[in-house]
Amino acid sequence: xxxxxxxxxxxxxxxxxxxxxxxxxxxxxxxxxxxxxxxxxxxxxxxxxxxxxxxxxxxxxxxxxxxxxxxxxxxxxxxxxxxxxxxxxxxxxxxxxxxxxxxxxxxxxxxxxxxxxxxxxxxxxxxxxxxxxxxxxxxxxxxxxxxxxxxxxxxxxxxxxxxxxxxxxxxxxxxxxxxxxxxxxxxxxxxxxxxxxxxxxxxxxxxxxxxxxxxxxxxxxxxxxxxxxxxxxxxxxxxxxxxxxxxxxxxxxxxxxxxxxxxxxxxxxxxxxxxxxxxxxxxxxxxxxxxxxxxxxxxxxxxxxxxxxxxxxxxxxxxxxxxxxxxxxxxxxxxxxxxxxxxxxxxxxxxxxxxxxxxxxxxxxxxxxxxxxxxxxxxxxxxxxxxxxxxxxxxxxxxxxxxxxxxxxxxxxxxxxxxxxxxxxxxxxxxxxxxxxxxxxxxxxxxxxxxxxxxxxxxxxxxxxxxxxxxxxxxxxxxxxxxxxxxxx
Amino acid sequence: xxxxxxxxxxxxxxxxxxxxxxxxxxxxxxxxxxxxxxxxxxxxxxxxxxxxxxxxxxxxxxxxxxxxxxxxxxxxxxxxxxxxxxxxxxxxxxxxxxxxxxxxxxxxxxxxxxxxxxxxxxxxxxxxxxxxx
Lengths: 489, 133
Hints:
The complex is a heterodimer of chains A (489) and B (133).
Chain A: H1 2-32, H2 40-76, H3 94-141, E1 145-150, E2 155-158, H4 160-166, H5 185-197, E3 204-209, E4 221-230, E5 236-245, H6 247-282, H7 289-321, E6 328-332, H8 333-350, E7 354-359, E8 365-369, H9 370-386, E9 393-401, E10 406-413, H10 446-457, E11 461-466, E12 472-479, H11 482-488
Chain B: E1 4-8, H1 12-24, E2 28-32, H2 35-45, E3 49-53, H3 61-70, E4 79-83, H4 91-95, E5 99-104, H5 109-122, H6 129-132
Parallel strand pairs in B: 1-2, 1-3, 3-4, 4-5
Helix pairs in contact in B: 1-5, 2-3
């Protein structure tokens, strides 16, 4: 108030100072005009009015300028926390100021709201982008093929698995008609009909061969899952087709069933003998003591056969499952061969079979499991003796190869030989050459176990060279032990 | 005159135990180690019944059954099958031959003797093994 009063007095004095030269000039004009004083009052009245007007307008101007300056500062302050309070200004400006401040406050509230919305959208966008990237990452690592199509059957999304299965580039098929990548008419019709039915609750599942793709044989056997995707109006907006290639699954299932079937057959055979002979003993069918002893011997033999079978099955499954305990040490394959020959010498002598050993006088050491490798040598030697006729010859040789840095063991015989079509199959589980079964008993697992021990456990190689009627040569090689390998180098 | 039974199996112990059981029961028993030998023997000795394993060298038990069914001299010969894989036999295998019973291994020699008796008593009036099961 005091400031305003001072400003008004200042303006009045300024007005008087400004008017004084005008009054002096008026008086001078009257004197020079010959004393005509009729106009003098009007002149003073005009001068005084002008002075008063000036005295009034000047403070108004100054007050308005000052208020506008503060208003400018108020408007310019973007940060609410530091913003000055709204300027009050002179009383005659207050209605305008009030309206103006209210408008500014309104804008500011709107700005704050917009900023919050913007931040919210930014967060949502970030969350959405992250979620999308996660979903895309999941889709990419999925082994099942995923195809998303819109209501016009145009491709919206295809993952890598679908690209691989259908032979297309996932990045180049977006917006393309579905039939460009999926040519199996029955599946296209199933997708179309599922979309038309618009069942948003349940998926449709089909199991059939996928046609129109490059595949060995008739095409991959697949499980198709078709699902409708709804929009916010609960209407079908897209179709998701998931294709699971079940070829490998079915192959494994078939192999498993085959294994169980073969295992069951092989287990039942000794069990049959055991049960039958036990029943014969119970029924008193063994008429004398010697017959009884024969029966007991057969039961004992079949029990041992069953034990061998179960042991082999367990060993193979342990190796396949990777849970077998491998006790690695430096093993001299030469001494293992000598040990195995010693063990099987009686059986060989019984059939008048000569067993030769040919051990190269070099380091025949390998890093491996002694018991497992002994079993391999024993199995191969036992097979050679079993399938070689009376008076035949079996030769075991052990040699080391500096080039391949491996120790080679081979077991050759003058036996029946293996037909060419059986060379690979002979290492499969329970595979036995049907026509040779009568020559000797066997579980059909020995060679498969040898392959697992050599290849899976010792990273070696096993194989067979044979001509029908000309004998066989089974061989295996194991990487040298570190010491021998360093010497070889 | 005792009934003549032909037993065919590549498992020597099974062959031995069945032969002994049948002989002790008063049958005349002949044995063969594979399907082909069994087929030849059946045509020669003209048995009253054949008991055969399924999985054998040269000729399987099912092939033997079919061969016997298609041979006019052995067409009416009843066959009992011994198998460790009973579920592998389907209706066609049985219908296309004279298989009257399928016995799963491990089997009881006692029950095989009972089956032999009942089969021989039934004679030509065969009951389908699937229906009997």
